[in-house]
Structure formats: structure tokens, C-alpha cells
Design a protein that fits this description.
Largest sheet: 6 strands, antiparallel, barrel
Radius of gyration: 22 Å
Helix content: 25-40%
CATH architecture of the largest domain: 3-Layer(aba) Sandwich
Number of helices: 9
CATH class of the largest domain: Alpha Beta
Shape: elongated
């Protein structure tokens, strides 16, 4: 039948990625072709866990294939395109204006257009996509999150930034302070945003709710390990199990040491009050995994 193919990390599935995927589906439908997305798995600083990214990509394409980067990284740009043509029945290729491929990133859209013209392969390059003066790219989104700029990251993503993790046993510190938490083991490949306290909304298989999300070293208690934990404003019943999807809504404050437990307890109470005030009148976000 032949395929329309898009290749890339698709890290975060931001606005520009979704426009590219939509165009790929349109070209496939027009030509009676299948739409294949070839992606690469990431080991660090990812905006989505690999498994979840691939699950979401399957909603956008007929087929999704995670390529072995080490197997193709040293292919010259032309050889990589030939591999797609011969091994994956490439009939049309869709890419963004900044796409690079092949050994030492030598291939670019101009190279692909010239290659396609000589072989009768359609190559379509999307125009640059920006949010105001800022180009929409995963790199810029990572920069925003490292600075705690939730609003800036959300503008480029077209949704709130997300974290994913699974509940694990904690030390019980939150409960002792009067603010019980769900401790999360975040997916290891995920980018860690700026340490501190966030207003968040979490989803899991059996429920959802707003609360505070903390990521940091717990400097008030240096004897304890770092933590990623969620305090829900309403106690969940039952407790979250399985995958937990955390939407970061706002950055409230930096991680810092307090003189002792009482001072920390008072600050958390202020954080809760501020978070609830920010939530007033806000719409509940939409979960990517749980509907």
C-alpha cells in the first residue's frame, strides 16, 4: 500500500508535533496510504515517558515504530532516506522546518526535498510554528520547566506540563505534619522541573483531584532522601494506584530549608490556601490517559 512517514523524537507531543501529525494523516488519507510514525526512545530529560508517548502517538497514526537510534545514527542522510523507502515503503515524507537526520545531522529539509524530487517521493515541509516570538520546540519547553515557568511551558505545549509516576512507600513525614502525601516514583527518563512546590491536578485510574506537588531535596530534613510527592486537597478514596498523571498548574515557591517542622507546617498551610485560591474558577484539566 505504501506509507506516509514522519520521523522524530516527538518529545512532549507539543503543538507543532500535533500539527505535523495531523498533516501526515491528511496526506495519507488523500493518497490511500498508511501513516507511520518512526520515533526514538529517550533515556533522560524527556517531556513524556517513552511508553506513554508511544501510546499517545498510536492515537495519531496507523503505525508507530520505535527505531533503534544506535542502528541508524551513522547512516548518511541519503542512506537513511533510502532505508525508509526500501524497508518501510516510503511514498511521502512529512517533516518540520528544523528537522535534521542522518550522520552528524547532515540531512535537512532541503536535502530531503531534493532527494524526493529525484525519486518521485513526495516531501512536505511544514512552515515554522511559533507562540508569539518564541519557536515551539522541545528544547525551549525544557528550558521553561527548568526555570519553573509553568505558564511558558504550557503555552508551547498547548496543555499543562505533565509528570508521570507510580505510588511508592514514603517516610510518613507529610502525615506527621498534617498534610498526608502520595509519594511518587517518577519515570526515570523524565525531565525533572525546577525543585519546589507546584499547584497540580492529578489523575489516576479510579479518580482525580487538585493538590500540591512537591519535588525537592527536603532541606529541612537533610537526613531524608529527596522526594516527589502529592498532597491532595481532598483525601482520595481509595488511594491512587498504578500510573498517576500529574498536571503542573502553577509554580508556587522554591524549595528551601525551614527552622523546623512547625515553620514548615505553617508554610504548607499557606501553600494550600494560595493553591485553593488560584484554583477558584479554573477549569479542570483534561487527562491524556484517563479520559
Amino acid at each position: 500500500m505504501g506509507r506516509v512517514i514522519a520521523v522524530g523524537k516527538f518529545d512532549g507531543l507539543h503543538i507543532a508535533h500535533r500539527l505535523l501529525l495531523r498533516r501526515g494523516r491528511e496526506i495519507a488519507r488523500e493518497g490511500g496510504l498508511d501513516f507511520l510514525v518512526c520515533t526514538f526512545r529517550q533515556s533522560r530529560d524527556a517531556l513524556l515517558p517513552n511508553a506513554i508517548k508511544e501510546r499517545l502517538l498510536r492515537r495519531e497514526a496507523d503505525e508507530v515504530e520505535a527505531l533503534d537510534f544506535e542502528a541508524v545514527r551513522d547512516l548518511p542522510a541519503g542512506d537513511f532516506l533510502e532505508w525508509l523507502r526500501v524497508e518501510r515503503d516510503l511514498q511521502a515524507l512529512v517533516m518540520g522546518p528544523g528537522h535534521r537526520f542522518g550522520r552528524d545531522r547532515e540531512g535537512d529539509p532541503r536535502f530531503a526535498l531534493e532527494w524526493g524530487e529525484t525519486r518521485g517521493i513526495r516531501v512536505e515541509v511544514l512552515p515554522p510554528i511559533t507562540a508569539g516570538p518564541v519557536p515551539i520546540s522541545s528544547r525551549y519547553i525544557r528550558e521553561r520547566l527548568r526555570e519553573g515557568d509553568v505558564k511558558g511551558a504550557a503555552r508551547l505545549l498547548g496543555r499543562q506540563p505533565l509528570l508521570y509516576g507510580r505510588p511508592v512507600a514514603g517516610t510518613g513525614l507529610g502525615r506527621k505534619l498534617g498534610f498526608p502525601t502520595v509519594n511518587l516514583e517518577l519515570a526515570p527518563e523524565l525531565l525533572r522541573p525546577k525543585a519546589g512546590v507546584y499547584l497540580a491536578w492529578a489523575f489516576w485510574e479510579e479518580g482525580d483531584g487538585a493538590g500540591l506537588f512537591y519535588l525537592g531535596e527536603r532541606p529541612t530534613f537533610p537526613e531524608l532522601p529527596p522526594a516527589a510527592e502529592l498532597h491532595l486537597f481532598r483525601a482520595p478514596c481509595p488511594d491512587p494506584r498504578g500510573e498517576v498523571e500529574v498536571h503542573l498548574l502553577a509554580y508556587l515557591r522554591e524549595d528551601r530549608a525551614f527552622p523546623g517542622p512547625e515553620a514548615l507546617r505553617a508554610q504548607i498551610a499557606q501553600d494550600v490556601q494560595r493553591g485553593k485560591a488560584l484554583l477558584a474558577g479554573s477549569a479542570r484539566p483534561r487527562s491524556l490517559l484517563f479520559g
